[in-house]
Amino acid sequence: MHDTELAIMVMSGPNDGQVIYLSQQQGHGTIEPDGTWSLVLGRRDECDVTILFDIQVSRHHAILSLAPNQTLTLTDNGSSNGTFIGRERIQEAAPLERGQLFRLGRTWLRVQPEMDKY
Fold first, then answer.
1. Which of 12, 14, 8 is nearest to 41 (CA)?
2. pLDDT digits (tens, 9 = 90+) for 7-32
3. Max CA-CA distance within the chain?
4. What is the rounded distance in angstroms from the CA atom of residue 112 to the CA atom of residue 115?
5. What is the model's pTM?
């Protein structure tokens, strides 16, 4: 089985500089019927990316999806304080480029550009 991996870097707050490594093979996220890998970002422990220190992040704040063609999308999951790509608040699934900053609550994050296996 091919293992799909992502690395997300926290770009603000007390965990600034932390890199969160995610892997399909290690059981992170869910695989949709079309092969899209979906990850939940939020404040709850069961989220794939947990942001505990920011009370403006909702329990299940947003969904980050990686399609089989390697296209990333970010979707707000009905959060109270919004999901932003750059300075633009998104209301529905929006394309996200690797290296592009996005924000949940007050926390800035970035999907790291392609890198060698970690």
1. 8
2. 999 999 999 999 999 999 999 999 99
3. 38
4. 8
5. 0.92
